[in-house]
Design brief:
The chain starts with a helix and ends with a strand. Helix 1 crosses helix 2. The strands form three sheets. Strands 18-20-23-26-24-21 form a six-stranded parallel beta barrel. It folds into two domains: about 90 residues; about 250 residues, no CATH class. By secondary structure, it is mostly beta strands.
């Protein structure tokens, strides 16, 4: 009986949040009866399941009675028996950096004198290469945990509260099913700014270039960079609340990239509803693998929510002075070239939680 309730608690705790009370009860009872031989109990066993959403735990209990032999002489013809198990979900949603490439050496890299601080969150690397994660030179990486499908070079430069693990299973792409919204035409061509201006969502064909002295405010909405590049030079300022920048090409050629240079002042946060909820930057999946996206604005760079560049080679340096509360980076490969802060307090943004899911028995 104990083995059966243990098994049902572990088996159903992940899916319990999506089931009605009746569905959970039926699945628990059916599974328990398939595992438990009730021939020694009188009338079988009664099974109960209770899910605690706040604790992400599932308690399964079973009760029954068995017929006594010797104790029957003393007037006790049956004896009550029972078992209980509580299973909890652990480890879900702690990732803030994910390198998707399955084979590259250095799919995730920290190099030079960079310090990468993943505050309360984890880095995962899906590459099976022996040097999938590389921390070289004077670089330092601190995180809640680090997980790599392959191996690590520079392990001694990594500090992880919950440990460093190699040989893990790949982490699923959290935005694999996110579809890019429809767009057409051009609202601007070869947009350039060198002073203060506020612009509206739309299709910016030929890219956007912000020169030193530019102070560009983005009104809420979706901005399509259709061919050309997004370039923000040192001394330029780019701000926007409720904004998604999408990199794409209507001609399937001249694919855009991004270049945010040192000294740029960046502050972008994503929409909290709509088709691109939680995503501040999104790159078309048709962009060729290896296109470079550089986010090197430095200490005054804050890209809130998710930066999703699934086929891009991303270099990143920034956020170290922003007190960033929510930044998540998902890309094909990732190279940290300067001090950076990441965090996952994303409740207000609607950014997807991702990372490995485990279960264990709590009692």
């Amino acid at each position: 009986m104990q083995a059966a309730v243990d098994a049902m608690a572990l088996n159903l705790v992940r899916s319990a949040s999506s089931l009605t009370g009746d569905q959970l009860s039926q699945k628990t009872t059916d599974g328990f009866n398939a595992l438990f031989d009730g021939s020694q109990t009188q009338g079988g066993a009664q099974v109960n399941a209770q899910y605690n959403a706040q604790a992400r735990s599932l308690a399964v209990s079973a009760t029954g009675s068995i017929k006594t032999d010797f104790m029957g002489v003393m007037g006790l013809s049956s004896l009550a028996v029972g078992a209980r198990a509580v299973a909890v979900v652990i480890g879900d949603g702690t990732a803030c950096v994910l390198a998707l490439n399955k084979n590259a050496s250095g799919a995730a890299i920290a190099q030079g004198s960079t310090t990468v601080n993943l505050s309360g969150c984890s880095l995962y690397d899906n590459s099976g290469n022996a040097t999938a994660l590389t921390v070289g030179g004077l670089a330092k990486l601190s995180a809640l945990s680090v997980g790599v499908v392959g191996g690590i070079s520079g392990n001694t430069s990594i500090t992880a509260t919950n440990g460093v693990n190699t040989g893990i299973s790949p982490i699923p792409d959290p935005y694999a099913k996110l579809t890019m919204p429809f767009y057409s035409g051009c609202d601007a061509h070869n947009f350039t700014a060198k002073d203060a201006v506020t612009i509206n969502p739309g299709v910016y064909c030929g890219g956007m270039k912000l020169n030193a002295g530019a102070d560009v405010t983005l009104n809420p909405g979706i901005y399509f960079i259709d061919r050309g590049d997004l370039t923000v030079n040192g001394g330029a300022k780019l701000t926007g609340t409720g904004v998604t920048i999408i990199f794409t090409s209507s001609t399937m050629s001249n694919w855009p990239t991004a270049s945010i240079n040192g000294g740029a002042n960046i502050s972008l946060t994503p929409p909290t509803d709509g088709p691109m909820v939680g995503v501040s930057m999104y790159a078309d999946r048709n962009i060729p693998v290896g296109n470079t996206f550089s986010f090197n604005g430095g200490a005054s760079q804050y890209l809130g929510g998710a930066i999703y560049i699934p086929t891009g080679d991303v270099t990143f340096a920034g956020g170290a002075g922003t007190g960033a509360s929510c930044t998540k980076l998902i890309a094909d490969t990732i190279t940290f070239t300067g001090s950076s802060n990441f965090a996952i307090d994303c409740k207000g943004y609607g950014t997807k939680a991702f990372g490995p899911v485990g279960v264990r028995l709590a009692s």
